[in-house]
Amino acid sequence: MSFLDCSCISNTQVHSFSIEDHYEDVSQQHLSRDGSTCALSGAADSDDLASLSADASHYQLLSELGWGFNNLSQVCMARHTPSGRLVAVKRTNLDRCTEDELLQLLNEVLLCRLFRHPNLLTSRLVFGFCCQLWVLTPLVSYGSADALLRTYFPDGMSESLIAYLLHGVLKGLEYLHEMGYVHRGVKASHILLSSEGRVYLSGLHSAYSLVRDGRRLQAVYDMPQHSPALLPWLSPELLRQDLHGYGVKSDIYSLGIVACELVSGRVPFQDMHPTLMLLQKLRGTHCCLLDVAPFPLGEMGGLKVSRSGVDSGIGESVATGSLTRAVVPDRPQSPTLKNHSATFHNVVQLCLQQQPERRPSASALSTHTFFRQVRRHTRDSFLSLMYPAIPFCSPPDTPTSHPLFPPCHGLAPRVDSQDGAWDFS
């Protein structure tokens, strides 16, 4: 079936299609090995939505969660009325997509349906409705790590929570790399967390295949789409665009940037001009963890000292250090001294090596001493790590009509909000 044989051309209902009829499902070999990584959330297929109906009239749209894909896709919380199950629906207005955007959307949809791993946000239920493409995914109730930083942890997360998040991302990257793909979009806004403790890696629209003509290449040279928004996380070898190219180790560098982002609440290189950022990375300048306060305490006397999210988190619940902090919308630099563990320092140092061959693989890094603490977590201890964050749920006043907006007349214009739950850029 051609991707252009959709309702935006024919104005008829487009039913779900089965990518499994055209691709061999080679992912089951990985599920048996990685299934143990999601002990808090049950079996690997617990989020499979294939049993739900592919009929837009069976879904009640409840609230907007975010936007993505050049603001062409709106993500909403929805309820499957026959079963009462809450899901996330990503609706893309195909009438407004260019040919390149249609091809990029097709690639993302195919990858989301082809991949199967507990730590990748994928979808096996895709259908058309009028001029829109609907992609259904599980509802990830805590939202993205970026939203958690902005709303609940402005001065950074605890090391225990960071280890939990990064370990789930590493398992997803290990699967992607073995399948022959480099992600190229690892950042906090693409790391999602469910209320059951499942860590998801999203952003597959940036993924790129290393396989050409049946052979796996060691390096590729393609520049990601919308790369200006990804610059702080991209590796030096990807930005250099020379004859050496880049490979899967590029994602490991991005993971190191994410670690610095999660522990400080700020993105490294964020305040630099893109040209200066590029020069700094190519010269080998890399960020490091700061174990001292960025400002003298005397100059920050007007702020309330907070211990939330800045302790090492090893052997101490983050809830204990969070009881005295009020949630603030801004991102002030924490005046509290941050004492990071030696193992955390080592993980960041390994990820941010200038030479990609000196960085560990995703599978090797997941066995690092820093991640041993992840095995000790139960559901109760996970919830204590998340304090004071709370998962969002169905709004009390749900709409009585089916769609939020008339589907055949495009999506409603985006309303920028500082409290948006998810970022799909």
TrEMBL record:
Q: Output the PROSITE patterns linked to this UniProt entry.
A: PROTEIN_KINASE_DOM
Q: Which PANTHER family does this UniProt record tie to the protein?
A: SERINE/THREONINE-PROTEIN KINASE FRAY2, STE20-RELATED KINASE ADAPTER PROTEIN BETA
Superkingdom per UniProt: Eukaryota
Name of the protein: STE20 related adaptor beta
- What is an annotated GO biological process for this record, any one? protein export from nucleus
Q: Which SUPFAM superfamilies match?
A: Protein kinase-like (PK-like)
Q: Which organism is it from?
A: Paramormyrops kingsleyae
Into which family does the record put it? Answer: Belongs to the protein kinase superfamily. STE Ser/Thr protein kinase family. STE20 subfamily.
The UniProt record lists the Protein kinase domain at 59-371
Q: Which GO terms describe its cellular component?
A: serine/threonine protein kinase complex
| Protein function | Pseudokinase which, in complex with CAB39/MO25 (CAB39/MO25alpha or CAB39L/MO25beta), binds to and activates STK11/LKB1. Adopts a closed conformation typical of active protein kinases and binds STK11/LKB1 as a pseudosubstrate, promoting conformational change of STK11/LKB1 in an active conformation.
